[in-house]
Each structure stands twice: as C-alpha cells, then as structure tokens.
C-alpha cells in the first residue's frame, strides 16, 4: 500500500469533507457517539481554514485526513497553564480503507510535521477511542463529562503523546 501524506490543498476541501461525512455516517450506523455527522460543509470549510490539515492519499484519492491545531486547554485545570498546545483535532479514514494503517500513518506523519519535539494532546469520546489512540503512544491524562451546545453530554478523555515516546 503506497500512501502519500500532504497538506490539504484548497481545491480538495470538498473531497476531504465528503470523506469526513462518510466516516461520520459509518460511525453513527455503528452506534458510536460522535459529532462529525452533524457538520455542514460550510462549517467544515471555515473550521479547516483555521487548522493544519493534511490528507493521506493512495493513487491520488483521499483515503484519510488529519487535522491539528494549537489551542489552550482551558477546560482541563491541570493543563490550563501550559499555554497553547498542539491538539490532534480530527482523524478520519475512509470506511473502505480502514484497518490498513491509514490513520496510524496520518498520526505519525502529522506529528512529525507539526510537533517540533513538543507533546501533542487530543480529547476524544471515552467509549472506545482511548484504546485506539493508546496504540499510537497516547496516554490518558484526564477525563470529564462535557455538555455541548447541542445539549448532549459526552464522557471525554484527554490524552497526551510525549515526543519520541518519552514521559
């Protein structure tokens, strides 16, 4: 499997959005609690313009995407004093390409591109995702219940990946 990693080009934003929507629909059909499937293209296009967005392609077709962003961990009291940290904000693999290492490749390449030797954080729904991210070296550092504007409450896990696997 020949995968390529590159920055998301403006001309491919709609294609990336369609992959994200397919992943959201796939997750929803399997009963996963997530918020991807409710995002409109306009929201995604605006959101992606403020982030570091990368795509994984195979034979020129987008098969995965990953988004990172610097932000403050104001909702996490133990980490709110760190200033802006690098957060992994979105990770998606087209359903037809799942289980082939696309997401692991996207995580590795995006962190190599953006982390500059600093820790990377992510927060995710606690149902099953922490186990997945632990396979890439992320360690759980916090949990909390968070209620969003849609009035749904989610059990959220904060995870941290140290540079070069250190603690």
State the main characteristics.
167 residues; alpha+beta; Aminopeptidase; seven-stranded mixed sheet; 4 helices; 34% strand
Q: Pairing-aware structural class of the strands and helices?
A: alpha+beta
Mean pLDDT: 85
Tally the helices. Answer: 4
How many discrete structural domains?
Answer: 1
> What is the beta-strand fraction?
25-35%
Order of helices and strands: EHHEEEHEHEE
Q: Please tell me how large the radius of gyration is.
A: 15 Å
Question: Largest beta sheet, briefly?
Answer: 7 strands, mixed
Low-confidence stretches: none
At CATH level 3, the topology is: Aminopeptidase
> Under the CATH scheme, which architecture would be assigned?
3-Layer(aba) Sandwich
Straight-line N-to-C gap: 32 Å
CATH class: Alpha Beta
Based on Cα principal axes, name the global outline.
Answer: globular
Number of strands: 7
Task: Give a structural overview.
With 167 residues, the chain is α+β, with helices and mostly antiparallel strands. The protein has a single domain, classed as 3-Layer(aba) Sandwich (Aminopeptidase). The protein is 26% helix and 34% strand. It is built from 4 helices and 7 strands, in the order E-H-H-E-E-E-H-E-H-E-E. It has a 7-stranded mixed β-sheet. The chain starts with a strand and ends in a 6-residue tail after the last strand. The mean pLDDT is 85.
